[in-house]
């Protein structure tokens, strides 16, 4: 069966996926409790905290600005210097912000947490998964990548479910401690067990002065970034996927940045309800990504799956935005079972349209384009959400900002319908000194 084939292809990635799953568990553990911690520190005694909403929006904006440069840069470095050192670097940055919340959870420490978390997100948010996908593409045959990517995203969902379960049962004072232990374990495991998949050809570097070396580094970065841009711009499929990803992320990131605060303000949800919602999406996602997508992909292809998932994301947004009772968010969350297929189908289309030596460049360049949406969405979502949650709203629709965000997903669906996915190994740049260690191309 297709899903069993995907499982067999995942086996060579064991030493990559074990620490990544632990990392995802640790990060997910903190999601539901952070809303209570930040609200209690910044707005003591209040269920609605406009300050926390604005700070989250500001954080997302800053991250979006820097990710536009950092993500493509990390992708280029992973193609040129190997996947392993970049994974070690990006995974390690997540440890330090939560250490502050273990130390203390006062208002000052929460502000310091936001500063460190912003830096960590600039480096690791999106880049970890993009480099992981590039690593998998080095090892897995092109025809089987969609099934493998669905397994990876399914494991991500399973990790989120386990993280939500731990957050539900663990006392709040232990959650950050356990998270730090798990986050510290991940880079140590990678260091000792992960095998590099990129063999670097020897480079003849003439001896240069320090100023000439600085100029040479900038020239190499410029040349590499120009190459990454050309790979995407000159491919109709990659260019179309950049637009699909941009508008989808513009809507979904805006919703994600305010959703938990919206549910807390409107229905009084707390850590337990947040964990239940996240677990619902996670459990359903495991089924859809590990079993459903590998079976459907050979029958209908990535484009049909992508369009169906985008349609489900629109329904998801509308139900949350128009939620009229506490049970409606649970109904909305059920659509997460389908819309989570946006990511694996996106990665598969991008990977199949990219050359073997440009996997990191293509994935992270498009992820960099997505980061522009992370920059733009809070500018509208944060003030709009705070306005409609306040008593000064022009009309009674507390989820109006979420409905507005759904328009971006509708635009994304329109671009997805125009896609003509192709398979191309011709995007390799001639003279590239890097070659995948394990590749069937």
Automatic annotation (TrEMBL):
Keywords: Membrane, Signal, Transmembrane, Transmembrane helix, Transport. It comes from the Eukaryota. GO terms for molecular function: transmembrane transporter activity. GO terms for cellular component: membrane. CDD domains: MFS_SLC46_TetA_like. Its main location: membrane. It holds the Pfam family MFS_1. This is Hippocampus abundant transcript-like protein 1. It comes from Cajanus cajan. The lineage of its organism: Eukaryota, Viridiplantae, Streptophyta, Embryophyta, Tracheophyta.
């Amino acid at each position: 069966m297709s899903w069993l084939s995907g499982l067999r292809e995942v086996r060579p990635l064991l030493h990559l996926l074990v620490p990544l799953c632990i990392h995802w568990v640790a990060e997910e553990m903190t999601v539901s409790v952070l809303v209570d911690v930040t609200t209690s520190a910044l707005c003591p005694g209040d269920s609605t905290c406009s300050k926390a909403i604005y700070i989250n929006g500001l954080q997302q904006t800053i991250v979006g600005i820097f990710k536009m440069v950092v993500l493509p840069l990390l992708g280029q470095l992973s193609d040129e210097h190997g996947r392993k050192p970049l994974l070690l670097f990006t995974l390690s940055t997540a440890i330090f912000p939560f250490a502050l919340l273990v130390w203390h959870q006062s208002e000052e420490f929460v502000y310091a947490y936001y500063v460190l978390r912003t830096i960590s997100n600039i480096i690791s948010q999106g880049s970890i998964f993009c480099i992981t996908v590039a690593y998998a593409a080095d090892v897995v045959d092109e025809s089987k990548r969609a099934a493998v990517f669905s397994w990876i995203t399914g494991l991500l969902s399973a990790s989120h479910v386990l993280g939500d379960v731990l957050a539900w049962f663990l006392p709040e004072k232990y959650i950050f401690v356990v998270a730090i232990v798990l986050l510290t374990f991940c880079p140590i495991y990678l260091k000792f067990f992960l095998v590099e998949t990129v063999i670097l050809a020897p480079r003849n570097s003439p001896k240069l002065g320090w100023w000439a070396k600085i100029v040479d580094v900038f020239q190499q970065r410029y040349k590499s970034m120009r190459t990454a841009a050309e790979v995407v711009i000159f491919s109709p499929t990659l260019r179309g996927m950049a637009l699909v990803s941009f508008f989808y992320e513009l809507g979904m990131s805006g919703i994600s940045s305010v959703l938990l605060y919206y549910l807390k303000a409107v229905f009084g949800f707390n850590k337990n309800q947040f964990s239940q919602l996240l677990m619902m999406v996670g459990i359903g996602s495991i089924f859809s990504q590990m079993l459903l997508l590998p079976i459907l992909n050979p029958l209908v292809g990535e484009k049909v799956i992508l369009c169906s998932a985008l349609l489900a994301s629109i329904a998801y947004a509308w139900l949350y935005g128009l939620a009229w009772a506490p049970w409606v968010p649970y109904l909305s969350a059920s659509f997460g079972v389908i819309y989570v297929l946006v990511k694996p189908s996106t990665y598969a289309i991008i990977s199949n349209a990219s050359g073997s030596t440009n996997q990191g460049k293509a994935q992270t360049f498009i992820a960099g384009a997505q980061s522009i949406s992370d920059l733009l969405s809070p500018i509208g979502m944060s003030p709009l959400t705070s306005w409609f949650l306040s008593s000064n709203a022009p009309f009674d629709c507390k989820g109006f900002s979420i409905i507005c965000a759904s328009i971006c997903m509708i635009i994304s669906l329109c671009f997805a319908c125009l896609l003509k996915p192709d398979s191309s190994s011709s995007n390799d740049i001639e003279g590239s000194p890097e070659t995948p260690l394990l590749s069937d191309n």
